[in-house]
Amino acid sequence: MEGQAVKTRKGQASIEMLATVGIVLLLLFPLLMLLLVGAQVRFEGLSQIQAASAARLMADSINEVYIEGKGATKVALVNLPSNTQSVTFSSNEVIISLETRSGTTQITYPFFGNVSDATLQTKIENRRGLMPVTFSVGEDQERNAVVNVGYVH
Q: Which of 36, 60, 61, 89 is the most exposed place for a label (fewest CB within 10 A)?
């Protein structure tokens, strides 16, 4: 009889320990999920700020070389966020598309420099992190100054 009482106590201690661990896990799981969601929101906010800075750097570089005139060249080291989908150039703005929880978000920054038709067809995709981008001034068919944008694939 005495041996059976010791086994019962060991079994009871094991069940109590498992119940305690289970309760702790039940309490920690929602807390961890809340922290992860909060971190994701902060990450998206920071990536939007980083994309705005990159768009501003590229637009300012276009303006700078355009003002300097034919023959001007500048290489800018652009830091794209890790959730960047693409970078495109319209006739008057740089557009960076980011993947966020709510879908695609576009960050834009305007410029006044005249960009070449080849630049308007340039779409930088699948690039993240530091990337050298070259801005140079050339001529179009009417011999007007235009900015060409290039990057290493």
A: 36
Q: Residue 82 contacts by C-beta under 8 Å, 6 or more apart in sequence?
A: 47, 128, 129
Q: Which residue type is seen at 23?
A: I
Q: What is the pLDDT of residues 7-21, one digit of tens each?
A: 567 778 888 888 898
DSSP run (H or E) holding 11: helix 2-68
pLDDT digits (tens, 9 = 90+) for 42-69: 778 889 999 999 999 999 999 999 999 9
